[in-house]
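From: lab user (bench 3)
To: helpdesk
Subject: output format question, protein + S-adenosylmethionine

Hello, I'm new to running complex predictions and I'm not sure whether the block I got back is the full result or only part of it. Here's what I submitted:
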Amino acid sequence: MADPVYRPDVFTAKNLARAKRIILTPEPGRSTDERWEKETPWVAAKLEHALTVAPEHSVLDYGCGIGRLSKALMQGTGCAVLGVDISSTMRAQAHLYVDAENFTATSPGGLARMAGAGFRADHAFAVWVLQHCYDPKAEIIRVRNALKPGGLFCVINSEQRWIPTDKRWRHDDKNVRELLRDSFDEIATYPLAVGPMSETLVKTSFFKVYRKPA
Ligand SMILES: C[S@@+](CC[C@H](N)C(=O)[O-])C[C@H]1O[C@@H](n2cnc3c(N)ncnc32)[C@H](O)[C@@H]1O
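Helpdesk reply: Thanks, we reran it on our side. This is the complete output you should expect:
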């Protein structure tokens, strides 16, 4: 049988309802909308605190989807956010959903070009993203290259890998935590909370903060 083929078009979302369902899949006893309402303010408040976000900061939302967390973080802090997403349909919807002057979205390649031209964000976060990346090492380095020295990177991620393929989700043995430690200093671990998230999600995920060495 042929090997599974990586299929990032799983993240193609033709409308808002479909995008939300891709971003926060329904769980037993919890719909996408319930997850969205409960998880979003909790995660945004934690990011604001962990990253010490100030109004003058530019923050990178890596794997922004439609900007669920960009929007909440901007509303809470007045910061600017650059969203980055592999999916052009997610990026297009992010502009409509966030609908703020200090938000824009680009592709991973666009971010690399911006970093090559000197752009550096103050801080960054990636929520439920690195687990899906085919080459997480390359994405982690891409984020690192776009951060100021000393900039913080918050990661909320599954302990398991969930790679979209033509034969459903695949798990490889890449260790995202180790890859993060190869590029950043790990500085804090936060507990995830049952209530904002399901018990299963809390048990199978991590929330860590990293610093780009000065
Ligand atoms: C589960 S969603 C999470 C979206 C957002 N972080 C949130 O929590 O609302 C994962 C997102 O990561 C994006 N993504 C997947 N692989 C990526 C990659 N290699 N680089 C950038 N974005 C990626 C997908 O297109 C999708 O929008």
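A quick orientation on your result: Residues 8-211 form a domain with the Rossmann fold fold (CATH 3.40.50.150). Let us know if anything else is unclear.
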